[in-house]
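=== RUN LOG ===
request id: a7f3
mode: sequence -> structure
chains: 1
length: 716
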Amino acid sequence: MRQVIGRNSVCRLMIGVVWLVLALNCATGQTVAVDKSELESDSLVQLTMDGGRIKVHWPIDEDGSFGDLVLRLDGQRPLIESIAISKNAGRALIMEDVDPTFFLTVGSRQGIKTDGWVVFFDHVDRRPYKTHQAQLEPRQVRMRSSRTRAVVEIDELTAGQFHGRLEFQVFAGSPLIKVDAVMQTTQDRRAILYDAGLAASANKWEQVAWRDVEGDLRVRAPETIRGEPALAAKHRAVVASRENAGSVAVFPSPHQFFFPLDNSTNLKFNWAGFEFHGEKRFGIGIRQHPQGDQRYVPWFNAPKGTEQRMGMFLLISRLGASGALEHVLRYTRNDRFKAIDGFQTFSSHYHVAHTMDVMKRRSAGQNVDNVPDFVSVFQNMGLNIVHLAEFHGDGNPRDQGPKRLPQLELMHRECQRLSSDRFLLLPGEEPNVHLGGHWMSFFPHEVYWIMGRKEGEPFVEEHPQYGRVYRVGNAVEMHRLLEQEQGLAWTAHARIKGSHGYPDKHNREPFFLSDRFLGAAWKAMPADLSRPKIGMRVLDLLDDMANWAVSSDSQQSVKYILGEVDVFKIDHTHELYGHINVNYLQLDELPKFQDGWQPILEALRGGRFFVTTGEVLIPEFEIDGKRSGETLTLVAGKRSKAVVKMEGTFPLSFAEVISGDGDRVYRERIDLSNSPEFDERTLRIQLDLRGRRWARLEVWDIAANGAFTQPIWIDP
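=== RESULT ===
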């Protein structure tokens, strides 16, 4: 990143009560104002100024190791003078004379049936856009610290019409350095992408390493890396290492970095080499593909006046490249969902088109007895239950029977074949008929139904091969089918895509008011880097539906939100983890396929689950002994007590108790900025819930990873 500040001068530090004014070039009079008013004296992180340098010194491990980051503000050398790890009298210099570099790609947002921000069906890449390398001109530095964390902010950072600051943040007990370009624009209707990394002259690098899509370690000397710098790296990380010194890994927030797409293909989300966006020096980092999966490519929203936080993580380590990459993976539990006693992991909404693939291979005389790649992907991620959404763009879902019924039967048989005592692959569809918007169907056993009924045809009949077959001609009959077979339906991608305006438009319909309509599904869509959370669209809907359920004129059953993924075909080379979330269902045992899976639907219908991106877990949430989905009776004149057990891999940021009274929504935030990485803790929170009718919990970390519970209902 270019430094536009003074050169070769002897400077004098002038100290005031609140501000320090650092004269960086006495000849030109160019100065940088330094604000140290928010430094805490008892912080475990030391921030000091020395001769035009900012020195950051913090504990990174219980073994007595400290991280040392030195930032230069004299313009003579790159911004980062050095990154090192010290222990006792020893010091390992890991990297020196390197710049953080950010590239902001700016396009336009086009409103489609919406105000332009709650949108997925957009093609930002098909309209003019431009990439700007961010330029830093240090004018003001602000240093802040708490007991366990510290931030250095450097103004001013610009990229095209965006302007703001560069931030470095460290965390006591962690080898992570979070580097953010925090910028905003006064222009309207902007959509953005960003790439980031570290750049330095070629002689400052020794080795660069990453794992390819097969998981094999690739180690290269910089001078051997030529041509296109984009890398298809597994697990989203690339490392620079020095022999006998250590490594620096560069990687993104696991989920926030990925704007929604239809496919989870590895689109070369890392880079290493020369001439990246015209940067002459050698560099490594993270990147986005402007054309995405070449379907719908919505990028990130950037409304004017919002501070877009475009970040990357640096992990410093005394280990070599392989060890550093393994350390990075600890923050996502090896891209795997942790097993928790008493819970089963459930993931929904996959358009893998497996049924039709098998049908085509059979007709071609090919082997169909293998275990498909996507099943191994799911199992390796620690998923116990996967709910499909077949015949969405494939198959013959609107067929009146001759084609549809054999396809349904094959889906059922393949799900049975690929299920086991430890893994369930369950049939499901995104039917999108009769109810309005897009929605998911989920039955507790095999059900055969046709999505239309002609005049004179029966609603249900016995078929000699398939048994009971339903013909459904309208919303009333769909509701009747769900009730008769004890199935569930819910809105897919609520309020966006093909469900724009839903479930709001039908929230007074009998099928929605019944207990057969579960609610809706959550996904981080659309994407906006100005939020400390992801998926606000559906979190807001969860609160709305909770208030609908308890309002004075309500006759509806309570509603819940489960996590959904909504991607198409998957194989082991994909970066699925960045797009996925999971539901932890309170189930002691996994049902057997042949016995049906009613307990899974009962756990969903009972609200006995929490949703997470994977890094944050909430294995226990109770208010006065009541769990999610249960009903609490308040004791007059007595405050309630919430007990929360939580875990995080990244340092946690905050928890929030959200409640409602049937009309308004209330939020009580609990600061978790004292949280170390890999934290496990129990919170006991006193709550005044007078007048409230429901309450739920969210927990978020520094990378916008999070988890949320379903509501606990409160008697009036």
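=== NOTES ===
The chain has a mean pLDDT of 94.
The helical segments are 321-330, 354-363, 373-380, 404-418, 475-485, 510-513, 536-550, 598-605.
=== END ===
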